[in-house]
Structures are given as C-alpha cells and as structure tokens.
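Late entry, evening session. Most of the bench is empty. Finally got around to the prediction I had been postponing all week. Sequence below, unchanged from the version circulated by S.P.
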Amino acid sequence: MHESRRAAPLTNSFRPAAAAIAAVSELKPGRYPDCDDRELYHQVLRKFLSEWPVSPRDIDGLLASPSGMAAGVSSNIFIHEHLGEDLGIRPVFSETINAGGATHGLMVQRAALAVAAGRAEGVLCIAAGSFPKVREGGAAANARMACHPDFDFLYGPFIVPLYAQAATRYMHESGTTKEQLAKVAVATRAWALQNPDALMRERGPLTVRDVLDSRPIASPFNLLDCSVPCDGGAAVLVASPALARRLNPQPAFVLGCGEAHTHANISQATDLIRMGGAIAAEQAYRMAGLTPADINLAELYDSFSFNPVLNVENMGFVPRGEGGRFWDAGRGAPGGDLPINTYGGLLSFGHTGDASGMSMIVEGALQIMGRAGGRQVAPAKVALVHSYGNIMSEHSVLILGRQS
C-alpha cells in the first residue's frame, strides 16, 4: 500500500552553481543499422571529443545508461567499465544506472552532487540506444517492462493504450480536448522546423487538422500524437566551475535538482494523473531558491502529446486543469511566453530509445550556453528540464542557469 508522498527534506550540502554542464553533444537521430550498441557509444564519444576541447584526462567520473532495453533485449550493465577502458581512463566515480527515460537526468544529478562533494572533477554522462519500430516489436517489449506479469501483461497491453488511459482520465477531469492535445504536436513540429537535426523537419509544418486526421492508434491518440522511434545517443560533461569555464565561456550551471519514484507497474499507480513530476519539481525549485515564474524555457519529456499538457501543471507553470488551455493559447510554441521543447521534442526531434532522456538535457544546456542556433530563446537565463521513466514512474527535474 502506498503512503501519501511528500517531497523529502533537502539535507545534502549541495550548493547551487557548485557544478555545471560544461559540454554536450548529440548524434543526429535516425537509424544506424550498421552499429551495434558498443559502436553507437563510440560514435557518440567520437562526436563529443571532436566538438569540444576535452581530453580523457579531464574525465575522472563516468556514468552510462544500459542500452538494448527499449528493444527488449539483454543490456550491458557494465558498459561504464568498457567505456572507461575505451577512453583509457580509470575513473574514481563510475557506474551504469537505469531509470528508463529519467536515467539521464538522474545521471546529471548524481554527477553534480559528486562534483560538488569533491568526489570528481569532470563526470561524463553518456547514453546510446535504439528504439525499434512498433511493427518490429517495440511496443510489446516496452509493455512487458511496464506491466505486472500477473495483473497487467496477461491481458495483452501495449504502451500506447497504457498512456491513453491516463490521458482519458485527465481529459475527463479537466475538460481538455483532442484539439488541445493536437496543438502540442503542432507546436513541437514548429520548433523542429528550426532544428536542422530534427528527424521530422523534412516533413514540414503540422496543422491541428493534420493531427486529428492521422491514423488512430488508441483513443485519444492518433499517429501524430505519438513520438517517433529512432536511434541515437548523446554525451554530457558535468564539471567543476573551474573546469567548466576552461572548456566553455558560458557553462550551464546546475542550480537545482529533484527526483521522485512512485510505482513500478502501471496497475500499482495510486493516481493515473498526479504522479511524481510535481514532487521532483518542488525539490528542484527549493534547492535552486527559485519559483516557476523564474523559468524562461522548459524541456519536458513528451512520449505523447498528452505529457506536456499534464506536466506544465506538474512543473507549476499553470494551475491544475489548465494545461490544455496553456497549449491552446500557443504559450509553448515559438513566439509564446514560455517556450517548451525548443528542439522539437520526442514528437518531432525523435525518440532515441535508451538515450531519449538526453535530448532535453542537451537542448536545455545549449539554450543556457547560447548555442542553440536559429531556435535560441531570449532570454535564456534559467531552463527547467523534466524527464520520466517507465509509465511516468520515475521523474527527474533539473534547473539549469547562468551563474549570477
């Protein structure tokens, strides 16, 4: 039985701006049929080291996420050891960790805490992975991980209807419409058109009618309400302020962070709507000494168009039940007062399987660094990055900013 959950008191000694994201790099999302998991990691490393003045000597910590889980295959739970050997380093702080899509935010949190405590000077967080097409078994593999074998999986669920039941309940309580969900997909595609690496950029803009007329998947979701499975990977270096400034004149400082873990299987969730995102956000705001009004932009994990509707509420940007109206008013789209998913989101940038939670961290950091190119938001002094794993089971919230 679940007890009422409250945000845990912050008893650690983390000081905001005691660690920063110094460098980020991401593979262009797509398909890499000639790369096995290890080679995909190597592609990420090569790109990262070619783009930043980082040497292996700068890295004394290494955190990695296992790959292969999104495809439902065995994953290498010691990938951090192999990558350490490949880099020729012997890190003093290293592990392979997993919390689904929240893994990457939690890696940055652990890295920042280690740097702030003096355990490491530079911690490389790295992920690479594939996400098979639904017709190739991707949905069934993910459903098996998310469902209880006795109470859920024997009924033959797959991922989309599991989210659809949460969306349906939310829409019933709030009055949110399918048109408002569609506006999330329209807005994120508009951002993707400004990102040369976005997978769906070449498909052009969307309209609400395009989304509503796309193939039905599981009510209330149509095809264009769903993220786009693909392959990819990314690397993020979390460093001490001194190392960060040596590598980058404008790092993205970790001002606050929070996490929450509420259930393993969807049948055990006590509430299909109000899960752990709000708890994690509250922790992050308190650590940073900030409020939702201080956030200039946000990157919110968006497996489906419903998630950003719910999570503008959970992050405190609008009152409960107002998420649909936020998107209806165009507030998260280009030109809106609170840009959301400025890289195109998982809906249009691409959902890179076991590495998907990296994309919003990379974008949040690039915005703070002033390196987001044509989609650069002004001002971009404080960014919130939210990600979750499993069926909204595990949540990470990061607040990134410039040091005042």
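Two things to note before I forget:
Residues 225 and 305 are 5 Å apart (CA to CA).
The longest helix spans residues 159-174.
Will write this up properly tomorrow.
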